[in-house]
Specification:
Layout: H1 14-19, H2 29-36, E1 41-45, H3 52-63, H4 84-87, E2 95-99, H5 108-125, H6 137-147, H7 153-156, H8 159-171, E3 175-180, H9 184-192, H10 195-210, E4 216-223, E5 226-227, E6 239-242, E7 255-256, H11 257-266, H12 273-280, E8 283-285, E9 288-291, H13 293-305, H14 322-329, H15 333-343, E10 348-351, E11 355-356, H16 358-363, H17 365-374, E12 379-386, E13 389-395, H18 399-418, H19 425-433, H20 436-449, H21 458-469, E14 475-483, E15 486-494, E16 500-508, H22 515-528, H23 533-537, E17 542-551, E18 554-559, E19 563-564
Parallel strand pairs: 1-4, 1-6, 2-3, 3-4, 5-11, 16-17
Antiparallel strand pairs: 7-9, 8-9, 10-13, 12-13, 14-15, 15-16, 17-18, 17-19
Helix pairs in contact: 8-10, 9-10, 14-18, 18-21, 19-20
Length: about 575
């Protein structure tokens, strides 16, 4: 393994990738398509961690004029074999590169401060223009203010445009402008209540740089979302958007199946292909089947250290998954049913809106389904025209994303149950009182109130019941505890007083008709395995045994005669 190339976790600079000999999945034909597609401004929208920043740095390294040529970085790569006319463009242009991913601030003032730092860094990269006699004193004075982060807010709204003007004036060559993750500050601003101020600032900054800018050769932007043209790109002509539904550039972000197979073969992990496909495949960009690159690379790194490691949900650790949490927390009954359909392998339909208006995300359910699609939590398996609308059939793309939904739903159920405003204590009161009929009603109420997934069968119900019975003062709830002649599913013990102990055995019925039989079976198991023996030795005065069966959102409760010890 020591002779193999390193797996590039978190490497976002193309030059570092090549110079330090990391494993590189060749996406340089993106440059060919960029040259062939002559739009003045191009926006690429893809989910987070799908290689947007690395591709933008690759574009920068290809086109940018540098003291020492970067041409060697592309030796042997696909772009060098595409034709001489493409390599003639290498190193010909000044490049302005800004990444706005660091503008994830909680208030407008902090976001503006971060923007000033980003501008200062880029002005520093191009400060040689100050030595040119072609700039007048007023221009040099403003340039210096940006270098020192001392310009006023109004000036910062035109800072990108002004830098391109200075570059063109002093070099005679128009600049390429690259803006990475342009929508990050808008997302944070929406979440933290200063969206109107932020979008006004970003709209002005981008419009001045991209609209009727005579100093611009071309521009590329990346982001997760296409913010509504009316709110940010008004009046911008010759503007191309390449979203997940477009065929052009469809294989330039994320990994194709052929690329994943090649990587697994290189690292001698061919046997893991089916598992990797099940967990990380399933995205559809245009007509191309795409794997999540972040998760594939994380798995490769772990599997290189331990070939026996299994796939897991790496992507869930890269973000707060706030959009899914909001969907789950604010779901009405119809939306809950749709979420259940999705996590159990089904589909939902939504009117397709690829331009996001943030207000619609909270007020229109189609808005959130579209947001989930554009950010990678759902995939469109079919898009059709219905009357004047485009309708997308949406599905969860893979096991990893399903795992994220389930985890968020599990946490939400626990929060709902523990919320003091809710009455989960009624379940506990019926349980301790030995009231099987009331207990059955209360459990059924909670089943119908929550979002459920059923293909995990007993595992879901086990977690549901554990959450429902946890954290009651004076009692300890334990799961999968060795007891008597077996292992009990759930036990509840009064503590520190040894007043009552409760033993619960769970079963899942395959049909409604067998629900009662399964409850009897569960209770018989609890009785036969002498689960009360240990509690007698521990000095408990009373032991109650329950058998509980489930079928979808229905349950049946059986109770054994209480055992009283003196």
């Amino acid at each position: 393994m020591s002779d193999l190339k390193r797996v590039p976790i978190g490497i976002e600079d193309f030059k570092e990738m090549i110079d330090k000999d990391y494993y590189f999945v060749d996406k340089t034909l993106l440059i060919k398509e960029l040259i062939d597609n002559l739009a003045k401004v191009q926006l690429f929208t893809r989910p987070r961690r799908f290689g947007k920043t690395l591709n933008m740095k690759m574009i920068q390294r290809f086109f940018e004029t540098t003291p020492e040529s970067n041409a060697y970085l592309f030796d042997g790569l696909a772009i060098t074999k595409a034709g001489e006319k493409y390599m003639k463009e290498q190193g010909k242009y000044p490049v302005i590169f800004l990444t706005l991913k660091e503008l994830g601030a909680s208030d407008y003032e902090s976001a503006l401060k971060s923007f000033k730092e980003i501008i200062r860094y880029e002005y520093t990269r191009h400060q040689e223009v100050l030595e040119s006699p072609k700039l007048n004193e007023k221009e040099k004075e403003l340039f210096t203010l940006f270098l020192n982060e001392e310009a006023d807010e109004l000036s910062y709204r035109s800072a990108i445009k002004f830098l391109s003007d200075c570059i063109y004036k002093t070099t005679g060559t128009k600049a390429i402008i690259l803006i990475d993750e342009y929508d990050v500050p808008l997302d944070y601003a929406w979440q933290n209540g200063f969206y109107d101020k932020m979008i006004d600032f970003i709209r002005t900054a981008l419009s001045s740089a991209l609209k009727t800018n005579d100093s611009l050769e071309f521009a590329c932007l990346t982001g997760c979302l296409r913010i509504s043209k009316e709110s940010i790109f008004t009046g911008l002509n010759n503007f191309d958007v390449h979203s997940i539904t477009n065929d052009l550039f469809s294989d330039c972000f994320g990994f194709t199946e052929a690329e994943v197979k090649k990587m697994l073969e290189y690292y001698n992990l061919n046997s893991k292909m089916n598992e990797v496909k099940e967990w990380y495949d399933g995205y559809l960009f245009g007509q191309k089947e795409i794997y999540n690159p972040w998760s594939v690379l994380k798995f490769l790194k772990d599997a290189n250290a331990n070939p026996k490691v299994s796939c897991s949900a790496y992507w869930s650790n890269t973000s707060s998954n706030a959009i899914v949490k909001d969907l789950v927390q604010n779901a009405d009954l119809e939306t809950k049913q749709k979420i259940e359909t999705l996590i159990n392998g089904g589909t939902v339909k939504a009117e397709l809106h690829e331009e996001i208006v943030y207000a619609d995300v909270q007020t229109k359910i189609d808005g959130i389904w579209n947001m989930l699609m554009l950010t990678g939590y759902l995939k469109p398996i079919k898009i059709e025209s219905v009357d004047v609308m485009r309708v997308a059939t949406l599905k969860i793309p893979n096991k990893e994303i399903n795992f994220i939904y389930r985890g968020i739903i599990s946490d939400w159920i626990k929060e709902e149950i523990r919320n003091p405003a809710n009455e989960s204590n009624k379940v506990f009161e019926a349980l301790v009182a030995g009231n099987a009929e009331e207990l059955q009603d209360e459990i059924s109420f909670w089943l119908k109130s929550t979002i459920s997934y059923f293909d995990a069968q007993e595992l879901f119900y086990h977690g549901f019941m554990t959450a429902l019975l946890a954290q009651h003062k004076g009692y300890l709830t334990k799961s999968n505890r060795e007891n008597g002649d077996g292992r009990t599913d759930i036990t509840v013990e009064s503590y520190p007083r040894s007043d009552v102990a409760i033993v619960i055995e769970l079963k899942v019925a395959k049909t409604l008709d067998t629900l009662a039989d399964k409850a009897d079976e569960a209770l018989a198991q609890a009785v036969a395995n002498n689960y009360d023996r240990e509690y007698k030795l521990m000095g408990y005065k009373k032991v109650i045994k329950y058998g509980i069966s489930f079928w979808k959102k229905t349950c049946n409760v059986r109770i054994a005669e209480e055992k009283i010890y003196k």
